[in-house]
Amino acid sequence: EAWTGTLESVFATRSDVEQKELEDKVFDAGKVYTAANKIAKPKVFIPVFPGTNCEYDTTKAFEQAGAQVKTVVFKNMTESQIVESVNAFEQAIKESQILMFSGGFSAGDEP
pLDDT tens-digit profile of 74-96? Predict the structure, then answer.
């Protein structure tokens, strides 16, 4: 009782207000509707930079929605890797209908 009653006057754990039963309004979709036409599969490009995050979650969400996802990591350790990454990004952008930028600190907060 010492640990529950000490601050009871400041942080009350009981109330004299009449308690009412709350209606439970949980949404239940029951059934998920998807398009009958399964031919369209948009191509999504997700560039991955040092410091970005959520590319895995985003990829999964797009794939569950029926998209084809391509992720390319921007490599910046050498000049040749930067050139290769820029070329890979250019090609991926040309092949995609959707360009999705992930969150986070792009380029590791570098200036």
Answer: 999 999 999 999 999 999 999 99
Whole-angstrom Cα Rg for the chain: 26
pTM as predicted: 0.60
**Domain 39-111, second-level architecture:** 3-Layer(aba) Sandwich (3.40)
In the block, tokens 């991955």 appear at 48
Identify how many contiguous H helices and E strands the chain contains and give both numbers.
3, 5
| Pairwise CA distance, residues 42 & 68, whole Å | 6
3-class secondary-structure state, position 59? helix
Burial (Cβ within 10 Å: 0-12, 13-18, ≥19) of residue 6: exposed
Cβ pair 70, 46 in contact under 8 A: yes
Residue with tokens 């084809």: 68
- Short-list 102, 103, 104, 76, CA closest to 88: 76
